[in-house]
Amino acid sequence: MNSQEYIEVAIKIAPFTEENAEILTAEISELPFESFSNDDPYLRCYIQKDLYDPSVLKVLLSGLEGYGFDIGWSANLIPATNWNAVWESQFEPIVVDGKCTIKASFHEGLKKTRFNITIDPKMAFGTGHHQTTFMMCRALLNNEDSVRDKVVLDMGCGTAVLAILAAKMKASKVYGIDIDAVAAISAYDNARLNKVGTRIETCCGDASLLQRNTYDVILANINRNILLQDIPTYSLCLHKEGLLFVSGFYVEDMPMIIGMAQNSGLTYISHDSIDNWCCIKFQKN
Fold first, then answer.
1. Residue 40: is its pLDDT beyond 50?
2. Do 121 and 85 meet the contact criterion of CB atoms below 8 Å apart?
């Protein structure tokens, strides 16, 4: 992201939890915000100055009563910033189980692993730093036979780390969908940067787009409420004995996620957890 004037909207959440921040992020993603960060008790949201309409934001936020938390907000102008320089100063390379390296283009001289992914996050999610992305990468690496020559969907693809890894693991076709237009564009660019663009198709939208295809593997690293809403759709679009990997929620949310999956024709296989974040593997009956 080049130099540009941005508005920072700081939304105070009471009580502040990661889940409440994720719910709020999902709602605000309907507007042209490009980036979000959690800074207890605030969710900080960033939008280009020319695209900011406080009246539209006010209407959206006023409609969030009933979610179980209170919000208050303020907006401030951020001077023109070289966002590339900001994330370059913060982004360290990540290695998943010694098999997959996630790095930026400016990282040089790193030891090669079996799978090497270079990304330009722009202002989208998915550098691999978050525990959920790390676990989803690990899940793919541990299920290589189920990915090779298969059709894979990365739902909520962000920067397309998971989609790119699936393509490098020789999936025959990978689809990436994200509700955030900036993320969808970033995913498209990163797929080509990693020379797997011919096998990855990205688009902007929600779970309604899934029904255009069927899949052998679905990856959904989103949040609990969106997963509970969309798991039935995931199941409908999975081939028999296909796999669903979900993350973006806490260990204590597992019973709800598993219950919804079982009601949707999916069988619990296993789960992983890091710092109370969870990743679950299901199989279509």
1. yes
2. no
